[in-house]
Design brief:
This protein is α/β, with parallel strands linked by helices. The chain has one domain: Alpha/Beta hydrolase fold, catalytic domain (Rossmann fold, 3-Layer(aba) Sandwich). Helix content is 32%, strand content 23%. It has helices at 36-42, 74-95, 107-118, 161-173, 191-202, and strands at residues 9-12, 22-25, 48-51, 55-57, 60-62, 66-68, 71-72, 101-105, 125-129, 147-153, 177-183. Strand 8, helix 3 (107-118) and strand 9 form a beta-alpha-beta unit. Helix 2 packs across helix 3. It is globular and about 40 Å long.
Length: 208
């Protein structure tokens, strides 16, 4: 665990050349260790950068505040996305990394979506697992479009179908290449999620 940058985080250097680094963004109640096994499984040998969400809700780490289930503090989303973008810039310098692909689950997927919308160019792609629309009013910020995979659960009690559809539309409108797949699953991850995410990551190629 490292605390030398602006976020408490874990960093595992690459053991295989030619892969994009992964930025691992945990869900509510996770921490910087939570998604390391998933990252290692989905992209063996890739560098892994895994920050801990700086906001506590009932003692559980998150990446931004919410007012209620599914109701986000949008001013805090904007602030925390900027803080995370700054951390990624710091970490890229310290560890010599290319722009990472985000792999986010739930709250982590939501902050990754905010990065894509508010700070284009920070990420080279994203896998958004059970994401929601992080901001209702999002400015159109010009930037390089990147590939995005959204995996939703048809029986997810937390993420409404129309909500994630709006997110996919916003990301597409901002120039990203979005693949949105709805799986027969709830909010938890299924084997299909893992298979699709691993296959998608393999198509991303080496960092430029």
């Amino acid at each position: 665990m490292s605390q030398s940058l602006s976020f408490v985080h874990r960093f595992l250097p690459a053991s295989v050349e030619g892969q994009r680094p992964l930025l691992l963004l945990h869900g509510t109640g996770g921490d910087e260790n939570d998604l390391l096994p998933l990252g290692q499984s989905l992209a063996p040998g890739a560098a892994l950068l895994s920050p801990r969400g700086p906001v506590l809700e009932g003692g559980m780490p998150r990446f931004f505040r919410r007012l209620a289930e599914g109701v986000f503090d949008e001013a805090d989303v904007v602030k925390r996305a900027k803080d995370l973008a700054d951390f990624i810039t710091q970490a890229r310098t310290q560890y010599g990394l290319a722009a990472p692909v985000a792999l986010g689950f739930s709250n982590g997927a939501n902050i990754a979506a905010a990065l894509l919308l508010l700070h284009p160019g920070t990420l080279s792609g994203a896998v958004l697992l059970r994401a929601m629309e992080p901001l209702q009013a999002t400015p159109a910020i010009a930037g390089p479009g990147v590939p995005v995979l959204i995996l939703s659960g048809a029986m997810d009690p937390i993420v409404p179908e129309d909500n994630v559809a709006r997110l996919a539309a916003k990301l597409t409108a901002n120039g990203n290449s979005v693949t949105h797949t709805i799986l027969p699953a709830g909010h938890g991850l299924s084997q299909a999620d893992l298979t699709l995410a691993a296959g998608w990551l393999k198509t991303q190629g080496a960092p430029s």
